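Support reply, case 0932

Customer input (verbatim):
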Amino acid sequence: MPNLDKCLTIDDLQKLAKKRVPKMFFDYADSGSYTEGTYRANSSDFDKIKLRQRVAVNLENRNLASTMLGQPVSMPVAIAPVGSTGMQSADGEIKAAKAAEKFGIPFTLSTMAICSIEDVAENTTKPFWFQLYVMRDRPFIERLIDRAKAAKCSALVLTMDLQILGQRHKDIRNGLKAPPPITPQFLFEIATKPAWAFGMLGTKRRTFRNIAGHVTEAVDLASLSKWTATQFDLTLNWKDIGWIKDRFGGPVVVKGVLDPEDAQLAVEHGADAIIVSNHGGRQLDGAPSSIRVLPEIVDAVGHKTEVLMDSGIRSGQDVLKALALGAKGTFVGRAMAFGLGAGGEAGVTKALSIIQKEADTTMALMGERDIRNIGLHNIYSNELLKRQGY
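Our regenerated output:
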């Protein structure tokens, strides 16, 4: 097992994961579309936000607990849906879900997960959230929603920003597939990553199990890949929220909102909450970072619905900055994936612990004791900084 004690930051976990995970799967997690400009901005724009330091404040009995979608959480952080998580580490979605459950935060399972809804439900004891991609095969989607409902998923996260796939150059160059093609190059690579290889040999979960066995046209890897590539529904629209809500019967959160007008439309069509997200910089390259547009979306709909935020969270400080700008909760995807690749379930726990400790320390140095009190008053700004572009 790797020595996770030496990992003090999410960047440390990222470096360790790069050593342990095959290149095509590490690159899948650590990449954006086209120039990756939006991917980089998701993180760099956080650096421009400065926190206000306060001193001589009683810092006893600090509290990071809050709620997300009315559910109690140990800190306002949820694990974001990440496709192919089970290729970062064998049974990865199960490991991440178990870590999240023990930590007291929500776990969100992707439609394009390696482990199925049923796999995760059988290995956890508390409800998790399920992320839905709407596909052309509506009967399959109806069955998928029914499966999430049967597994007692407590929320459905409807992704609206992937009707068409943003091109990710690394995935094309690496020939990304799940399971991976057994080429001489891949065999040579996994020879240097034996822990990953032995883990994969020890599991039956190596393909998209939410789909495989549930679609008659997908009988093998080739047909599954072909079916998936042609299935994202180009006609997806705001009215689809209605029938999805009726079918699921629980809260539906709309993910992929990056514009105030879209936020208004999501709320008008019944979204129970929205997630400000640019898909981790993996869709529209050149779009603004999530943190940059968060304040105007909060202004537009924050009084009507719960606004959550995704894309770019790498630290406890990032969590606090998002909360200060109006988010009621945040999602971490790559931080989870890097932790998983670095050390399985223990690595995910380490990633969450790093974020928790950073949030607690930073909150204290800001002169706050309760994370629910974080707001705009915690952001430092003056006219000189504004003129300099900060």
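We compared this against your earlier run and they match. Two observations from our side: The chain has one domain: 4-387. Residues 334-365 form the longest helix (32 residues). Please reopen the case if you see a mismatch on your end.
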